[in-house]
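Following up on my earlier thread - several people asked me to post the actual chain instead of describing it. Fair enough. Here it is, all 257 residues.
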Amino acid sequence: MTTASNQDIPRKVAASQGFQWLAAGFRLYRKNPLLLSAAFGVLFGAVMALGLIPVVGGPLSELASPLIVAGFMAAYRALDSGSELELPNFLAGIQGPAIPLMAVGAVQLLGTLLIGQIMLGMGFDPVAMMAAAKEGASPAEMQAILNQATPALLAGLALFAPLIMATWFAPALILFGGARPATALGVSLRAVARNWAAMLLNSFALGMLLFFAALVPMLLGLLVAMPVLFGSLYASYQAIFAVWADDTAPYAGDNLA
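Reply from S.P.:
Thanks for posting it. Predicted structure:
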């Protein structure tokens, strides 16, 4: 298992691994597709139900999201090691470092709120845009609204990028290596920046997967796509962190039949 000390130096990998991680995630998913899809359906439903609670529901669901990610990381670690996948694996975040994981969720929540306020201050008003579209605004009026919102959208993308980078590997770093939240966020940011080419290809592949999954009626495609996404995340963690000291060591995608 990766320790906290050897996670401090993320390994740089070839850009082509970005596609390999998705393939590795799918191969891991095939080891127990029914349980993985069922677990995602139950956990996703629980988070959605949590989000329906007035006022506090949204923040609570954001705080809980790293716990779900950690649970899937533990599930894929079990599958990758040849162990039998069991329901308690998906509760590894709750049963383990719940507070540090929720701290990452708090960073996500506060970062999202702050970026949202900055975008509003720059003139991005999604409510006004939706109202204009419903009221049948003319093409010229819609173009004017979009022109006003474009700088805010670009600024939002620029600000969201480091937030996503910092939180991408943080749950796995906390769960597997016992990293503190601040350390996990910093190391994750450095890892994604160092492997930007592989991460960009992986993001493109995952985006295509989610796009086609969204075409399946009743969001049933997500029951496959999202567990595969988590498998890809686990494979990328293995490649960048778990074997960083040994270029010849196998990672999750190399030994899955």
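Residues 16-125+154-242 form one domain. That should answer part of your original question.
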